[in-house]
Amino acid sequence: MKLASLKHGRDGRLVVVSRDLKHYVAVPDIAPTMQAALDDWAHIEPQLRKVSELLNSGHEGRAQAFDPAQCAAPLPRAYQWVDGSAYLNHVELVRKARNAEMPPSFYTDPLMYQGGSDDMLGARDPISILDEAWGTDLEAEVAVITDDVPKGTSAEDAVRHVRLVMLVNDVSLRNLIPNELAKGFGFVLSKPASAFSPVAVTLDELEGHWQDNRLHLPLRVWLNGEWFGEPNAGEEMTFSHADLIAHLARTRKLGAGSIVGSGTISNKDRARGSCCLAEVRMIETIEQGAPKTPFLKAGDTVKIDMWDGAGKSIFGAIEQTVVLGQ
Amino acid sequence: MKLASLKHGRDGRLVVVSRDLKHYVAVPDIAPTMQAALDDWAHIEPQLRKVSELLNSGHEGRAQAFDPAQCAAPLPRAYQWVDGSAYLNHVELVRKARNAEMPPSFYTDPLMYQGGSDDMLGARDPISILDEAWGTDLEAEVAVITDDVPKGTSAEDAVRHVRLVMLVNDVSLRNLIPNELAKGFGFVLSKPASAFSPVAVTLDELEGHWQDNRLHLPLRVWLNGEWFGEPNAGEEMTFSHADLIAHLARTRKLGAGSIVGSGTISNKDRARGSCCLAEVRMIETIEQGAPKTPFLKAGDTVKIDMWDGAGKSIFGAIEQTVVLGQ
């Protein structure tokens, strides 16, 4: 089942989207918003699935043409957004570029940060920044939306709490990060609003590609229309989506609608490209002594997509343009 | 005007509370929840104020007895919770206890962290922990709830975006903090659910005590029924509530219902006691070479309150007991 939130007020309007992303049906009689559906999933999901089946079989008379540009984020505002760094190749490159050792604990204890969740961008919303000197970067990732996760949930049990999967562009202001992290309390200014794929999907839509609580497909990124990367999101994911949820739940429960991100997808094979500019700049630093690829500038475009085995987009593409201003 | 959320479903039920905290009136015809009121404040506030005036003048026939034990947090789940460290005496003591220098930037650039906001505790909810060895601590603070704050809002303009003020117990797991902060991405495990005062109040309820965007009253803390501290929340607040909001808004807008905390209240005058156990332990370390006051254990009770000039509780008290388990 594929779900989206069309732009409407603060929380969007929940719709069921067809598998081929061509049509949608509004479901105000079932649940007004994505959060309302997540709050009462056991009761709401079967009703949404019936609509989805009709829609996919071509028997839903109310179907309308689906336009990703009308989408808000699946959760236009959420009660929680936590992001991991599950691809240690990325973390290793960061460290190597500044000649720092990788702490051994990083291979057993997931690195995660609490992000702001009051403002989530739709897939076609601009990346709006006040100052190009902040060093704006994309970070292409996979994220899951959970239901209520009890405190102390194990990684084995965590997957049962995954309700939906989607793509994220976790926008970062790279030049603000060093000073902010040096203060010791994580990110506040250097992680502005993230953007999400037009639709979020249930695990069954991922067919055999969801294995070991990882999504084994390439995440495809284009910058200004040119191929930028397609690392596989499953193969080198050190901590699975279930591991990340279990880590968070060690000391606290998670509320329905919590969004848990994977961190920037990264593979050791450099022919597969990258999912963020910082990684390209680190490789340039390691190989040539200094970065040469610039961060994002006004007018630059970013596209992030993931295709199924038949080359069809699963989540719809994130397509954003950088703009200067409010 | 004083508002509370009685326990009811995931988001509570908005009620108007009398100034003396003795009565309340439910207002389902005006707004079902606190978040709904904040989402449309310009339209909703005048209607709530009419109820408040009737209630305070004794002319509201629907008034019922107010019981803080029935209160959820004013926002039982919120779209944002960010906490500052605005009292630099506290930060200086932390540093001094481990013989570390205070970075000069700390006096001009507010230290803040993004917290989890999917699970906010009511004023009488237990502090529920899985392991006493985690070193559970209270942190008594003042927090404001904002409306929509545009990106780039100045400190001068920020106070116009303060809708409500309340008290917080920002529970911390002290023994998990060093390892977590050493990872560099802030708090995830070491800051479980925070608890909030029974009521949140508009600025006019603070009368002359709200000055220079600071709340100039002692915050009173008792531990197991014994006096623990009463530092003034205004006098030594290096960064005002407006400064903290403006800092957050430098790179991103804030959504209505964002909660911004002050950090642990702390004064240089040690006769005024403390608002957290860590500070007492730091002073013991500085004066005696080692801490002797233990962190919270199962059965310990914490009370946090603030009185007006006439000795009346403004927000109602936070009163929590530590329990082991889920």
Automatic annotation (TrEMBL), chains A, B:
GO function terms (MF aspect): hydrolase activity
Fumarylacetoacetase-like C-terminal domain location is 81-323
- Which EC number(s) does UniProt give? 3.7.-.-
- Membrane-spanning ranges: none
Q: Fumarylacetoacetase N-terminal domain location, by residue? A: 1-77
Q: Which UniProt keywords apply?
A: Hydrolase
InterPro entries for the chain: FAA_hydro_N (IPR041072), Fumarylacetoacetase-like_C (IPR011234), Fumarylacetoacetase_C_sf (IPR036663)
Q: What is this protein called?
A: Fumarylacetoacetate hydrolase family protein
Source organism of the structure:
Chitinimonas viridis
